[in-house]
From TrEMBL:
InterPro entries noted in UniProt: ERG24_DHCR-like, Sterol_reductase_CS
The name this protein goes by in its record: 7-dehydrocholesterol reductase
Keyword Acetylation: no
Signal peptide (from-to): 1-22
Keyword Oxidoreductase belongs to the record: yes
Lineage: superkingdom: Eukaryota
Compartment(s) of residence: Endoplasmic reticulum membrane
Matches recorded under PANTHER family: 7-DEHYDROCHOLESTEROL REDUCTASE, DELTA(14)-STEROL REDUCTASE
Keyword field: Cholesterol biosynthesis, Cholesterol metabolism, Endoplasmic reticulum, Lipid biosynthesis, Lipid metabolism, Membrane, NADP, Oxidoreductase, Signal, Steroid biosynthesis, Steroid metabolism, Sterol biosynthesis, Sterol metabolism, Transmembrane, Transmembrane helix
EC number: 1.3.1.21
Amino acid sequence: MLSLLSLCPPFVILLWYTMVHADGSVVQTWNFLKQHGLQGFLEIWPRPSAIAWKIIFVYGAFEAALQLILPGKRVEGPISPTGHRPVYKANGMAAYFVTLVTYISLWWFEIFNPTVVYDHLGEIYSALIFGSLIFCVLLYIKGHVAPSSTDSGSSGNLIIDFYWGMELYPRIGKSFDIKVFTNCRFGMMSWAVLAITYCIKQYEANGKVSDSMLVNTTLMLVYVTKFFWWEAGYWNTMDIAHDRAGFYICWGCLVWVPSIYTSPGMYLVNHPVNLGTQLALYILVTGILCIYINYDCDRQRQEFRRTNGKCKIWGKAPSKIEASYTTTSGETKTSLLLTSGWWGLARHFHYVPEILASFFWTVPALFNHFLAYFYVVYLTILLLDRAKRDDDRCRSKYGKYWKLYCNKVPYKIIPGIY
Ligand code: NDP
């Protein structure tokens, strides 16, 4: 675990360097490092500059203010194993809208040029790497000395506590939810902001935006818009309801999302491809279809749970399993497991359109350099692991009922194959 942990920060920097300064070529970066060794690597690594800190601070403060100030419906999260139910203000879509309008207006009215962000990207990632590490240490300390709810605890191992986190729902005061900030308002929001930044950078550098960049940016924006449209649903997923606030999820959202998730767009800035209208439209429409199917899988599961199974799935009454389980306090509860619709095809079928969508926003780069596809490969590995983790968790939660589900729906992700 430790070795994996220490590999992440250098990788973020090497990916940025290769995309921006080495023509997207892993071989070029490799040759440079072979020739110059550790000294060369240290030269590549940008120092966090004052302007990088300023950009991060202003962006973070703006998002935190929107999270606190903007109005939103009161939404309850799922009940935790200790019986705690978190309450949220669902103002994600409003924050997303205000952020994008503000950012584009700043550029349009020549108040702030987003190319400054691109030109200081290495310094920004470097600052994020160190800043987020400190943030995770503070989360660890908070978990020990001032946990926000009963959903907190130590495994007894310092490294595991730091890596997986201690608190499930850390908050500042009563209402500022830290995971909503790190995962949604900082991480996912930065994906949209950087997608627009890359587009503007290409426009300012070449006087036009290539159709490949337009397809990439549109698909990534559709995906992030879908995310904020469904943000309250995200608060019911593993990231929020099961994964504690530690290095794995928080550092990932604060550093890995802005750098790795946005990387296909970062690559396209210096590698514009002219696809032609027909091919561009085919890729765009197929990508949107994948995003829609992914959304519909999540929607189907949540609608099914919200209505207690009293809804239509693909025009029919759903087939289901009533699964009971025991909470840590010894109470017996029941959950419904949907066994028809998308959830009857495979137990994690929703990962298929998720991976395909990422492929379709990357494929406008064509196949000159593997690195553009790093996110697609990374996501595939992440989701294969996640399907296994989720299966293990559900098996230990639902026991024989999960076995029944596995008998009825035998495939993990791809129907008929895996
Ligand atoms: P979810 O948490 O939404 O779904 C899994 C949970 O749903 C299980 O833990 C279980 O929770 C419940 N469940 C499982 N089977 C059924 C069933 N048949 N019927 C009803 N409930 C069931 O999954 P994820 O968090 O993994 O995914 C959510 C979204 O986020 C997806 O769109 C996914 O593609 C996306 N995602 C994107 C990632 C990225 O990096 N781009 C990474 C991970 C996810 P319970 O305990 O309530 O029963």
